[in-house]
Design brief:
Helix content: 25-40%
Oligomer: single chain
Number of helices: 9
Structural class: alpha+beta
Mean pLDDT: 89
Order of helices and strands: HEEEEEHEEEEEEEEEHEEEHHHHHH
Largest sheet: 9 strands, antiparallel
Shape: globular
CATH topology of the largest domain: Beta-galactosidase, Chain A, domain 5
Number of strands: 17
Low-confidence stretches: 1-19, 400-420
CATH architecture of the largest domain: Distorted Sandwich
CATH class of the largest domain: Mainly Beta
Number of domains: 2
Strand content: 25-35%
Strand order of the largest sheet: 6-7-8-9-17-13-12-11-15
Radius of gyration: 23 Å
Length: 420
């Protein structure tokens, strides 16, 4: 009898393993899009060791950029809740609020509430200044037991197609050549799975079955969605990036090992030091002034110093297909906007940022004939190619005749740099 039971258990284990090893059906999945351009918050660490930028919109995490500011590598990350009979998708079914978690940092706390008051999800974000990792501190409170799930939609190399999703070493991994992401949870995942959007993904599974029923270990070359169950009322998620899955996993694990409190303290300290370096303004306007300066600072790339994109967004992104990597949206450099941001930095007291942007303008973006593209990728390649007069005239005015913030007649802040 004991031998028979052992055989039955072994058979079930083998069957479970076989089912879990299956590749997800339905490649490549639904045509992907980007998210809305109406961002509620943006953030990144002030160090160059962390080349991850995040955006928040509609109560959830929207596009995450890595390794440069013109390259989105994740579309969304959100949660779902189920009681076995009903499913609530965070972005669609819950009420959302957002608040500043620290007055001198790009630190935010999002709260998503069930309209009936049965449960609440609170999330605080920080990128690790030492790693290419975004940490999300999560608290889930409810009036009775509910199942909580995470749903992550990677979009490596600026497109939602062509990703390969894996369940690897306890992590939800997404890969493309030369880049990977890894999602881990401090308390581990329950039934992690990958699938193709609209066919075999977690959204479809949850809406059909009110729980996770499908288990797929691999979804190759398509619009991949990663899903897993979560346990506990308080935990941390780590979304790590790297050149390989091993590198992404290692970075995420290193950030989890440090813990959210330590990582967040370093993150806040970096921004606080930056704020202290700015000019002093009337206390009535200090909060708005500091936030504006930090948001501008966050829009500077770390591979191309001085390259400041217009916005971490795609306008009307929900209607913009993400099936190819050529969508620039607003995460491009407009010479006109670069000029305006640089003069704002001068007014704020960050002359070094203004000078970096001038170097970028003259050494990277300016074309051989002396003109400037309407806009460009970070490496200077023109995106739109029509002649836009303000894109030519603004930077030339800046280069040759802009006066410094002291407004002394005839004083050109960049005079000594004209011939650089």
């Amino acid at each position: 009898m004991r031998l028979k039971k052992l055989v039955q258990i072994s058979f079930l284990v083998l069957l479970s393993t076989a089912l879990y090893a299956q590749d997800a059906p339905g490649a490549p999945g639904a045509v992907p899009t980007w998210t809305a351009g109406s961002k509620d918050g943006v953030g990144t660490a002030t160090t160059n060791n962390s080349r991850v930028w995040f955006t928040l919109e509609g109560g959830v995490l929207s596009e995450v950029y890595y390794p440069q500011l013109d390259t989105a590598s994740s579309r969304t990350l959100e949660f779902a809740v189920s009681d076995g009979e009903n499913v609530w998708i965070e972005s669609r079914d819950l009420f959302h609020t957002i608040e500043r978690a620290n007055p001198t940092a790009l630190s935010y706390r999002q709260t998503s509430r069930d309209p009936a008051g049965r449960f609440k999800i609170t999330k605080t974000y920080a990128t690790d200044p030492q790693q290419n990792t975004l940490l999300i501190d999560v608290t889930f409170t409810s009036t009775k037991p509910y199942s909580l799930y995470v749903l992550s939609d990677p979009a490596l190399k600026n497109t939602g197609f062509g990703d390969t999703g894996l369940v690897e070493d306890g992590a939800l991994v997404a890969e493309k050549p030369d880049v990977a992401s890894a999602l881990l949870a401090s308390a581990g995942f329950l039934r992690p799975t990958v699938g193709f959007a609209g066919v075999s993904d977690g959204y479809t599974d949850l809406m059909m079955h009110r729980r996770l029923k499908w288990s797929y270990a691999r979804a190759e070359n398509g619009n991949v969605v990663q899903t897993a169950g979560l346990s506990g009322a308080h935990f941390t998620l780590a979304l790590g990036f790297g050149a390989t899955s091993q590198e992404a996993i290692a970075g995420a694990r290193a950030s989890l090992k440090r813990g959210f409190a330590a990582v967040n303290a370093d993150y806040v300290q970096g921004w606080t030091q930056y704020v202290r370096s700015l000019r002093k303004v009337n206390p009535r306007y200090a909060s708005e002034f500091q936030l504006a300066a930090m948001v501008l600072k966050a829009h500077e790339d770390k591979t191309f110093p001085g390259a400041m994109i217009a916005s971490m967004s795609v306008p009307w992104g929900f209607a913009s297909k993400a099936d190819v990597a050529g969508v620039g949206g607003y995460h491009l450099v407009w010479a006109r906007d670069l000029y305006e941001m640089a003069t704002a930095f001068m007014a704020a007291g960050d002359r070094a940022a203004a000078e970096r942007s001038l170097d970028y303008l003259l050494k990277v973006q300016q074309k051989p004939d002396g003109s400037f593209p309407q806009n460009s990728w970070l490496d200077g390649r023109p995106y739109w190619t029509v002649l836009q007069m303000d894109e030519v005239s603004y930077p030339w005015c800046w280069r040759g005749s802009w006066k410094d913030s002291t407004l002394r007649p005839g004083r050109n802040i960049f005079a000594r740099r004209r011939n650089s």
